[in-house]
């Protein structure tokens, strides 16, 4: 059978690529003879990293005619979309299932309507027209603040034959879009299924003083062109630098790391805002570009302070207590699932003093916090297996015939 995987992979976001990696691990183990095709942002990088057949989002291979390039730009953009749809329809002709593996695919964070919302709709439409099943697997959803983005993403979600969500907020949000979620499922984020670093099972060598990890983020507000983007970003850098300085003044070592290649700017700006000398603690920097690298960093710390969802996931997966400075409900949902809801603040409003107090609170009873997190991880592993069995039994099976769905059904 042939399975297409659609997502914003290779764009520099380690969480997105980690979701793809987890899904590939499952598919290659459960369906070793399946033909896999990844539809992604950066085909060359994904091909090299995962040894995978790939194609770009506009269904283009390496060489494209000058005429087609013109059709897909400028005045020819709308015509170009039809040309792309024709190519996508051709590619989807022998695909049995199109899988959207994880990620916050049903939101419009830093997106315009004709960015990812339109891309997801376009590929789902092509899949339905060619009779392929569509599976949204352990996805995140909402918020979607743009009206046109909401239409594209709602229409795409309606076309799916299988939907599961990584948290209750996402399921409720999709239900609020007017979609019948009665047959849908709630399963953990796919990245919980990634292979943990080997040393994660080693006995902890408790550090004194403690080491605190800070996952930085180039955060400029929810909208791509937020009116207060510069001020939001400057305040964030100033406050994170203050947290790091105060922790080091208190004798703690601090390790800064990233979750997206764009975060390198924030990391450099935070470093520039820190004094070069005078602190008792040491500062180290890791320019992490994959979830495996993030997990390697998390293993070196006692407590993590993070904003990106998958950085938070890595900390919890490795039984490290975390403080969430999140920008969306997904962080709050994940922390609540681990009985850590009290350790959440919003990235635009977090209080430095509260962060420092909560670091001390966690360190006062670190072993108890780790034990609670470990119990939740045991349950998560069982749920991941349950979803895999469900997918193999009901979704990832060769289609019988090529039944073309009604066009109005695909467009509704």
Descriptive account of the structure:
This protein is 45% helix and 14% strand. The chain has 15 helices and 13 strands. The strands form 2 sheets. A 7-stranded parallel sheet has the order 3-2-1-4-5-6-7, sandwiched between helices. α7 links the parallel β6 (162-165) and β7 (185-186). InterPro entries: Polysacch_pyruvyl_Trfase. Pfam families: PS_pyruv_trans (PF04230). This is Polysaccharide pyruvyl transferase family protein. Residues 13-327 form the Polysaccharide pyruvyl transferase domain.
Concise synopsis of the structure shown:
The chain is an alpha/beta fold. Helices cover 45% and strands 14% of the residues. The protein has a seven-stranded parallel sheet with strand order 3-2-1-4-5-6-7, with helices on both faces. A six-stranded parallel sheet has the order 10-9-8-11-12-13, sandwiched between helices.
Largest sheet geometry: 7 strands, parallel
Taking pLDDT < 50 over at least 5 consecutive residues as the criterion, the unreliable ranges are 402-412
Q: How is the largest sheet built, in terms of strand order? A: 3-2-1-4-5-6-7
Q: SS-based structural class?
A: alpha/beta
Name the assembly state: single chain
* Record field, number of beta strands: 13
Domain Polysaccharide pyruvyl transferase: 13-327
Keywords: Plasmid, Transferase
Organism: Shinella oryzae
Pfam families: PS_pyruv_trans
List the main descriptive attributes of the protein structure presented here:
seven-stranded parallel β-sheet, alpha/beta, 412 residues
């Amino acid at each position: 059978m042939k399975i297409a995987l659609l997502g914003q992979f290779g764009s520099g976001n380690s969480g997105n690529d980690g979701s793809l990696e987890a899904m590939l691990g499952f598919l290659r183990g459960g369906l070793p003879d399946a033909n896999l095709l990844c539809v992604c942002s950066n085909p060359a990088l994904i091909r090299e990293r995962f040894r995978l057949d790939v194609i770009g989002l506009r269904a283009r291979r390496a060489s494209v005619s000058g005429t087609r390039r013109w059709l897909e730009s400028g005045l020819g953009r709308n015509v170009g979309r039809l040309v792309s749809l024709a190519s996508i329809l051709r590619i989807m002709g022998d695909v049995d299932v199109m899988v959207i593996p994880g990620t916050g695919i049903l939101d419009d964070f830093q997106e315009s309507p004709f960015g990812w919302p339109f891309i997801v709709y376009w590929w789902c439409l092509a899949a339905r027209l060619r009779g392929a099943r569509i599976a949204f697997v352990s996805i995140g959803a909402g918020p979607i603040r743009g009206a046109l983005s909401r239409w594209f993403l709602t229409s795409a979600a309606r076309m799916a034959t299988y939907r599961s969500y990584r948290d209750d907020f996402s399921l409720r949000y999709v239900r609020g879009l007017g979609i019948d979620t009665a047959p849908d499922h709630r399963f953990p984020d796919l990245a919980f299924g990634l292979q943990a670093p080997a040393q994660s099972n080693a006995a902890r060598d408790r550090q004194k003083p403690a080491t605190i990890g800070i996952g930085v983020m180039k955060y400029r507000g929810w909208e791509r062109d937020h009116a207060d983007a510069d001020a939001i970003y400057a305040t964030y850098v100033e406050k994170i630098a203050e947290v790091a300085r105060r922790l080091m003044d208190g004798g703690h070592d601090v390790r800064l790391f990233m979750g997206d290649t764009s975060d390198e700017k924030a990391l450099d700006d935070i470093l520039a805002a820190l004094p070069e000398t005078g602190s008792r603690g040491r500062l180290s920097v890791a320019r992490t570009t994959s979830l495996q690298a993030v997990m390697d960093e998390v293993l070196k710390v006692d407590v993590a302070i993070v904003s990106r969802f998958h950085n938070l996931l890595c900390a919890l997966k490795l039984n490290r207590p975390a403080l969430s400075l999140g920008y969306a409900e997904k962080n709050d949902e994940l922390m609540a699932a681990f009985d850590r809801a009290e350790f959440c603040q919003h990235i635009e409003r977090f209080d430095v003093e509260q962060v420092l107090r909560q670091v001390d609170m966690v360190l006062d009873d670190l072993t108890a916090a780790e034990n609670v997190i470990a119990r939740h991880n045991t349950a998560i592993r069982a749920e991941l297996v349950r979803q895999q069995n469900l997918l193999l039994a009901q979704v990832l099976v060769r289609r019988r015939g090529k039944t073309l769905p009604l066009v109005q059904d695909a467009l509704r």
